[in-house]
Amino acid sequence: MSNSLSTPITIAARGQAHSVEGQAQARDGIVVNMTYLNGYRHGKGIVIVRNEKDPWKSYADVGGEQVWNDVLNAAMEYGLTPLSFTDSLFTSVGGTLVNAGVGAQVFKFGPQIANVHELHVITGKGDLVTCSKKKNSKLFYASLGGLGQFGIIARATIALGPASTKVKWLHLLYSDFSAFSKDQEYLISFNRKNDNAFDSVIGFLMINQWLNLLNFFPTQEIPRINSLIAQHGIIYVLELGKYYDNTTQDQIDQEVEHLTSGLKFVPTFKYVQDVSYQNFQNRLETVRSPAEPQSWLNLFVPGSKISYINEGVFKNILFKQNLTAHGVIVVYPMNHTKWNNKMSVAIPDEEIFYLVSVVQSASPNLLKAVDDQENQILDFCKISNIKIKQYLPRNKTYEEWIEHFGSKWQNFEDRKNEFDPKRILAPGQRIFN
Ligand SMILES: Cc1cc2nc3c(=O)[nH]c(=O)nc-3n(C[C@H](O)[C@H](O)[C@H](O)COP(=O)(O)OP(=O)(O)OC[C@H]3O[C@@H](n4cnc5c(N)ncnc54)[C@H](O)[C@@H]3O)c2cc1C
Q1: 136 in the Ramachandran plot: left (φ > 0), alpha (ψ -120 to 50) or beta?
Q2: CATH code for the part of the protein at 294-394
Q3: Which residues line ligand 1 (CB under 6 A)?
Q4: CATH annotation of 166-287
Q5: Quick one: which atom of ligand 1 is closest to the CA of 111?
Q6: How many C-beta atoms lie closer than 10 Å to residue 402's C-beta?
Q7: pLDDT tens digits for range 9-55
């Protein structure tokens, strides 16, 4: 309808509205609250199809408005699971697929956008199109990581695999960044489905006085961990997960021992616990401060430059300024080969690149300081010629977007002209308006 008006009305899909820069807004336009769609699905919002012969060929057919946690719970009833998760499972399927959806399993299965078989997309021209790698592939690849510019994702078919029921959950503490990042890169090199390796690899920083992550450790260990942090200022936490179930539980301790032998963490600072699979995937919910407004900056950093980020950003900006007592800094590497270059999302050129995600409390009295600090981090990368790509980007000018997409820009713009020529969709991303 809007497309046929001489002055079209802009439209933004609103998933769970977690975006912090107004990406799900449409000034003077219409915001579609996707969660209402669930009411029209008559219980078919999430349909699980289990392939008995080969569970790896199972899938979930889900509405774009569905929340990942509900997809996980529905799949688990069939002994299945999505393959790749983000840190929060309370985001919508559509909301993460227009970005990428990265997390602790990305090294093995790629981002969430690499685990989609088919999409139903309503384009800016008002057409409802079914698309996949083989059918209407231009729209399929454009939509994945396409920041909502080409269409609203009404449904998605998501790959599933067999689920374990339990997880060995490990935290290894490092005082030396180089040892930490080398071990991370070593562990993500075992990234084939059947490799006997960890299933989940991610990392965090613990900075002087940032308390959130201490929830992960046994209470009696906290004084010892605090003194390690006080001694070094920043501690790097390697977090690992190894999935298992009743059939493999006899060997799991030995296996974990074997997989961690040779890693260069500070001796005796290794913590292992057992958790259920679902609690593991939801573990980060326990370290958030949901009552506080948060600001975040997410960067994809070329692997060859990650030590510069440690010196220039972690030590010289975040640690020295110590703005907030609440926050999480997530750092982990991933492999370029697990990403499909035809998708819209912009990533660095190198084979190994890192996600650096700085999430900080931004209560009203801190808001300006946090914002200034994030700009300092971006300036540092520019001055140091570190060719980062912003994830969940918040570029403001047309020129910044052209630089962001680099060699993908022309394609991106051509696809916009084809699928949303009147620039109706997702104006809150501030790309074409
Ligand atoms: C606590 C927390 C932790 C996070 N951790 C991670 C993480 O580990 N990894 C990661 O990759 N991301 C992470 N994110 C970011 C998150 O993936 C994005 O912010 C995502 O967009 C949130 O989904 P949403 O449903 O809230 O989207 P919204 O904020 O509602 O929308 C985001 C954008 O997507 C568009 N959109 C929404 N639904 C659709 C649809 N169906 N079709 C087309 N466009 C649509 C909107 O118009 C908007 O432009 C995290 C976010 C939070 C709040």
Answers
A1: left
A2: 3.40.462.10
A3: 12-19, 23-24, 34, 64, 86-88, 91-92, 94-96, 98-103, 148, 152-153, 392, 426, 428-429
A4: 3.40.462.10
A5: 11
A6: 15
A7: 999 999 999 888 889 999 999 999 999 998 888 888 999 999 999 99
